[in-house]
Amino acid sequence: MRAKVTGRRMFLAGKWVARSRTINVYDPQDNSLIDTVPAATVEDTLHCIDEAKEGAKIAASLPVHQRMSILQKAASYIEGNQKTYANTIAREGSKTIREATKEVVRCIETLRISAEEARRIHGETITFDQMPGSENRYGYYQRVPIGIVGAITPFNDPLNLVAHKVGPAIAAGNAIIVKPATVTPISALLLAEAFAEAGLPEKVLSVITGYGNEIGDVLVTHPAVRMISFTGGLNAGEEIVRKAGLKKVSMELGSNSPVIVLEDANLEEAVEATVSGAFWAAGQNCLGVQRVFIQEGIMGPFQKAFVQLTRQYHIGDKLSQQTDMGPLISEREAIRVETMVNEAVEKGALLLTGGVRDGAYYLPTVLTNVPKGCTIAKEEIFGPVVLLYSVRDLDMAIQKANDVDYGLQAGIFTQDIRKAHEAIARMDVGGIMINDSSDYRIDAMPFGGVKNSGVGREGIKFAIQEMTEPKVVCFKI
Predict the structure, then answer these.
(1) Which candidate among 133, 228, 360, 416 keeps its CA 20 to 30 Å from the CA of 153?
(2) Phi, psi dihedral angles at 252 (to 5 degrees)
């Protein structure tokens, strides 16, 4: 029987269940009601965990070829219903239909890579005879599932970021419980639908909808949950670490990503990439370009071209193919961004374009001469605002780029391979893109940051490493 996500249902241990208490899901564009989902209770969460104990045993016993088949079938199901998935992402979140369609394509790729990586969960032989007295021993280590993974996901990539946790967990033979963002739960439920259609055994996957302050602590603190995979804000991440206890924690906590543009850069390519990187998904993107350091010799032409291209952005209906940028996830978030920009302007920053809010919409905004002490210069904006700085040389650019508490990804535009390698060596980030903006990622690469940008790495192969543990085997003969 075909599983359907039709309001007031969540996916508890393979079963679609309703609850009398519900959460409204609104379209941030016009605040229209899209659907309702259950508001899960502590008891629901405990039930998920109890069921997942058995689910972990079921998942671990699944032959690799069955895990691969389920992941491939789930990917094919999403591919066959691509428009439904894209429309859901666009309606419940901030993305335009073009951005949402790309996210669906990436989700399909994430699941297919997960299927491929399931066959590559390898161990190694161990030379025990390296130790005197161990000449009659031989053995190896293998990687085994960790058990139950708790996943907490954000609103900005409500499908693919969930897939980045579910795909590797299933490939590795784990059970997983997903708590999606309260404002964008439907995409995660649609992912569960794909796995139900693909024949994933019951109890292996749960997608539990509810308020984080009611059910989050249960998931984070329960001793049966052996790993928490979290994507979200720094404050929430720090709180999870304090509460989690003795379990694995993998976190991606955002950034205020820098891009360096040197005088020998291809100016047109640099402008195009940084504008796109700054305003994709209304700037609600952990990799989004926030700070651009431009060598002083090209500051004038770069700034002029950057502002000109920014002003060409079409802001409007998310479901229109002509729209470049939609609203933020809520009017409250737009007000937060507006407040940060106003503070910077009051302290002396120069507003080059934008700075206008209309409900949840906030125009693409460009600032320069931003004082160091402004909140917007130090913290993650998570909105459509970019800061332009003039710098003397590469050394100055690197120093300023590193002078924050985050370090997820960075970009540098230069034709000089020596300068590129200097940036690679000196920039405190988890990834650096040469002749591209910070906003570049493929789903197979290791993804994560340093400093307050998080711990651990995502990217399917690397997430599988996080979600498994080595078991040593030694034979005495």
Answers:
(1) 360
(2) -120, 115
**Which pTM was predicted?**
0.95
Tokens 């059970």, residue? 175
Residue 453 near residue 290 (C-beta atoms within 8 A): no
Q: What is the DSSP string of 318-334?
A: TT-TT-SB---S-HHHH
Q: SS3 of 400, please?
A: helix
Res. 441 pLDDT band, cuts 50 70 90: very high
C-alpha to C-alpha distance for 238 and 223, rounded to whole angstroms: 19
Output DSSP code: residue 289: -
Instruction: Quote the CA–CA distance of 446 and 421 in Å, as a whole number.
Output: 20
CATH fold group of domain 10-253+453-476: Aldehyde Dehydrogenase; Chain A, domain 1 (3.40.605)
Under 8 Å between Cβ of 22 and 33: no
Q: Which helix (H) or strand (E) holds 302?
A: helix 299-311
Average pLDDT over residues 431-436: 98
Catalytic residues: 252, 286
Cβ contacts of 442 within 8 Å, gap of 6 or more: none
Query: Whole-number mean pLDDT of the chain?
Result: 96
Angle at 414 between CA 444 and CA 259, to 5 degrees: 60
Kindly give, in sequence order, each residue whose CB lies less than 8 Å from that of residue 281, ignoring residues fewer than 6 positions away.
94, 95, 99, 156, 288
- Residue 35: what residue type? D
At which residue do the structure tokens 């199901």 appear?
Answer: 77
- CA dist 355 and 131 (Å) reads 67
Burial of 267 (0-12, 13-18, 19+ CB in 10 A): middle
Q: Residue 101 CA to chain centroid, in angstroms?
A: 17
pLDDT of residue 3: 38
Query: How far is residue 174's CA from residue 55's CA, in Å, rounded to a whole number?
Result: 8
Contact yes or no for 125/139 (Cβ under 8 A): yes
**Is 390 in contact with 294 (CB distance < 8 Å)?**
yes
Contact 454, 233 (CB under 8 A): no
Tell me which CATH homologous superfamily contains domain 258-442: Aldehyde Dehydrogenase; Chain A, domain 2 (3.40.309.10)
**Residue-wise pLDDT tens digits, 197-208:** 999 999 999 999
